[in-house]
Amino acid sequence: MWTVILIISLLKVIDAANGLDAFHQKYKLLNDGNVIPALAFGTWANTSDLHKVIPSVIYAIEVGYRNLDTAHLYGNEHLIGEALSIVFERGLVRREDIFITTKLDVSVPSREMVIPSLQKNLWRLKLDYVDLFLIHTPYNTFNYPNYDILDIWRGMEDAKKLGLTKSIGISNFNSTHVNRILKYGKIRPAVNEIEVNPTRTQLDLVAYTQSQGITVMSYAPFGYLVPRMSNEFVPPTFGDPTLVKIARKYGKDTSQVVLRYLMDRDTIPIPRSHNPLHISTNADLFDFSITQEEVYAINEFNKNLPAYGSGEGFTRLIRQAYNALLQTMALLYK
Predict the structure, then answer these.
(1) Which of 61, 68, 127, 266 has the fewest CB atoms within 10 Å, i.e. is most exposed?
(2) Which residue positions does the secretion signal occupy (predicted)?
(3) pTM for this structure?
């Protein structure tokens, strides 16, 4: 706790010296007292792009990202571990400079299996602890009998108490799921990582989650602005007049406006890319802010349309991803 207080104090000194609100711009204080960078780098990759993960992560750290988001389901934690080992060895950053988020294996059926599963995450990441550990989904993906997400949450609480993770949280939880954890859990989730973007604004869920003191991390921040598996066209595009007008006002790209929109809604966007130019552009967000009127204008693009499905459709996608993961692991470790 004293470390957190010291960090905040130092950042406030910097604020006073520079006349900028550096702390609120670049960091957020979680409800458990831990500090999280306000922008994350997403590490999910198609199987065909796995060879790009290590150089992309290293480059992201070189250009300033200090928050990496991964998961067991992505099948690339071992690559993140390799990248981290390289940047630590080079002296680019220290372990304490990097915020690492990973997620629980979706096949874990009970509290007793949470700790052994997290220890495998840590082995792949080559770390002694992670900064944030999330339940990946509230759904009973494999239809286990007597499955109870609250039982899983108690295992997450065990992990925090053991120091294997600094913070614990949830992902893809709706307000009903959140309420169950708040009502019966002993530790309040620090984060809810959900899909938020211009075509899925999730205004109610974001507002409710934040009202409970839970920080929102926004995955798929570009929504349908980038190609999706469905190949469905859903406006806007990066060339939309509304986005272009805002971008010209601030001398920014429209992609940066979309990410800044999520930040100005007090969420943490998680852009991902293997393109060095996109990686660096997506990190250049801290010298401007859009107005509330511009946030409202971007909200108007909402179609309540998820890029990754919802409900049973989302669960099917998770099962498919898990089966693909098993095939990939079989090839890697045969």
Answers:
(1) 266
(2) 1-16
(3) 0.92
